[in-house]
Write a structure and sequence with these properties.
CATH topology: TIM Barrel
Number of strands: 9
Strand order of the largest sheet: 5-4-3-2-1-9-8-7-6
Order of helices and strands: HEHEHHEHHEHEEHEHEHEHH
CATH superfamily: Aldolase class I
Helix content: 40-55%
Distance between the termini: 24 Å
Number of domains: 1
Radius of gyration: 17 Å
CATH class: Alpha Beta
Largest sheet: 9 strands, parallel
Structural class: alpha/beta
CATH architecture: Alpha-Beta Barrel
Length: about 270
């Protein structure tokens, strides 16, 4: 069993959903990023990590700002892999996924990048700007190297395409909870729960929801609606952004937030 399979199986026994926080690696700098990753790994079920990128088309202002801070601090793909190795040594069993853009994979050589990811301790990856129709090369490389390729299903995705994506997905399916880019929203629409139920009928892998989730009540709604996990990124980056001048306060606020969100999955 993969780390994803083991984690979701254990959570199912406990009747809990998966709490999956996202953060941009290297934000706001290399050493602080280490501390943030430790807090996340201590309070989450799965980690979703981003490589900073200059043109993150799927992301809203919070994650764009995080990308800019990370890049300005001198973070590179190699340093991102160092951060992953650091947290993997401390937490051997937690699944680690990457959420990134294809330019970063392609420009480093697809197999070369994936081998480095596997060696660092990555379990799976989601390429945000790669539709299922263009994923053949990546799928073959992931299968060869032993990584699970995660795919997105959006609110606009229709029945036949849902089936096609579900048939290829590994690890879990990333369900986009809102139309538009990442970012905090006031509420979770009932249509998101309807979409989750539709995907679950067609999927053999767990279904997790991201985009727009920022409060415990959001987490409760999607877990009670049938989702296997909640992915939260912009709200994490907001805490980082609001406490750039006080790392201790940042880490304390982050820990409190993570604990509340995990509690909401139970």
């Amino acid at each position: 069993m993969s780390r994803y399979e083991k984690t979701f199986a254990e959570l199912e026994k406990k009747k809990e959903g998966a709490f999956i926080p996202f953060v941009v690696l290297g934000d706001p700098d290399f050493e602080t990023s280490k501390k943030i990753l430790e807090k996340m790994a201590e309070n989450a079920d799965i980690l979703e990590l981003g490589f900073p990128f200059s043109d993150p088309i799927a992301d809203g202002k919070r994650i764009q700002a995080a990308d800019e801070r990370s890049l300005k601090s001198g973070i590179t793909p190699e340093k991102c892999f160092e951060l992953i190795k650091y947290i993997r040594k401390k937490h051997a069993n937690i699944p680690v996924g990457l959420l990134l853009y294809y330019n970063l994979v392609y420009s480093n050589g697809v197999e070369n990048f994936l081998k480095k990811a596997k060696s660092a301790g990555v379990d799976g990856l989601l390429v945000a700007d790669m539709p299922i129709e263009e994923s053949g090369e990546m799928q073959k490389a992931c299968e060869k190297i032993g990584l699970e390729q995660i795919f997105i299903i959006a609110p606009t995705t229709k029945g036949n395409r849902i089936k096609k994506i579900a048939s290829k997905a590994k690890g879990f399916i990333y369900t986009v909870g809102v139309l538009g880019v990442t970012g905090e929203r006031k509420s979770i629409e009932d249509s998101t729960v309807t979409l989750v139920k539709l995907i679950k009928k067609n999927s053999k892998v767990p279904v997790c929801v991201g985009f727009g989730i920022s409060k415990p009540e959001h987490v409760k709604k999607i877990i009670n609606g049938g989702a296997d996990g909640a992915i939260i990124g912009s709200a994490v980056e907001t805490i980082i952004e609001n406490n750039l001048k006080d790392v201790e306060k940042m880490l304390l606020e982050l820990e409190n937030f993570l604990k509340k969100m995990k509690e909401a999955t139970k």
